[in-house]
């Protein structure tokens, strides 16, 4: 199956700083999502981005499918950005369903 | 993402109890998923239903029994669980649009299960 690795595993930022999170995957994929899991366990969908670049406010993401990686950029970080960031890649199955495999996660803490 | 509703939010059960987790979505999605997440770990896939039929079982122990009564509902029946089964159980759905690869996951808020 597909292997999904994220880096860095942990990140501490001062409020206002910028950061880049990386997701590497071992095989070509048709589906890729970025999630933010807040301290209460809620998984918030940030981007559905199998390829290309998208932006939403202070967040943007880029996936280069041919090189098997995706990047999540956080600019002007805020304390509410704290939590764990996961990428998840969809592996197609013979039943026609996608099997979403989560990466190892990046735990972000933003200090005031 | 709050369009997928999970109940209860918290559940404490003994090892001899039988309980059920419920998940509901009204987005017309035809694929539904159960994930298990232990503390400080990523979510791990347990089951996938496609058009109300079990599509994927990731070698989950039989003490976990999924059920999809209709396209909007997904249940997870629990029986004779062990303390190590304590975790956050997450339900998700996706559109599974025919002829396209566009199939993003939408998660519920999860049920935090403690087995005593």
Outline the structure in words.
The complex is a heterodimer of chains A (112) and B (116). Helices cover 0% and strands 60% of the residues of chain A. Chain A is an all-beta fold and 112 residues long. In chain A, strands 2, 4, 5, 9, 10 and 11 form a six-stranded mixed beta sheet that branches. Chain A has a five-stranded antiparallel beta sheet with strand order 1-3-8-7-6, with no helix packed on it. Chain A is globular, with a radius of gyration of 14 Å. Chain B is mostly beta strands and 116 residues long. Chain B has no helices and eleven strands. Chain B has strands at 4-7, 10-13, 18-25, 31-37, 44-50, 53-57, 64-70, 73-79, 87-94, 106-107, 111-115. In chain B, a hairpin with a 6-residue loop joins strand 4 (31-37) and strand 5 (44-50). Chain A binds chain B through residues 30-31, 33, 35, 40-45, 48, 50, 86, 88, 90, 93, 95-105, and chain B through 1, 31, 33, 37, 42-45, 48, 50, 55-56, 88, 90, 92, 94, 96, 101-107, 109-110, 112.
Brief sketch in words of this structure:
With 112 residues, chain A is an all-beta fold. Chain A has strands at 4-7, 10-14, 19-25, 31-37, 43-48, 52-56, 59-64, 69-74, 83-92, 98-102, 106-111. Chain B is an all-beta fold and 116 residues long.
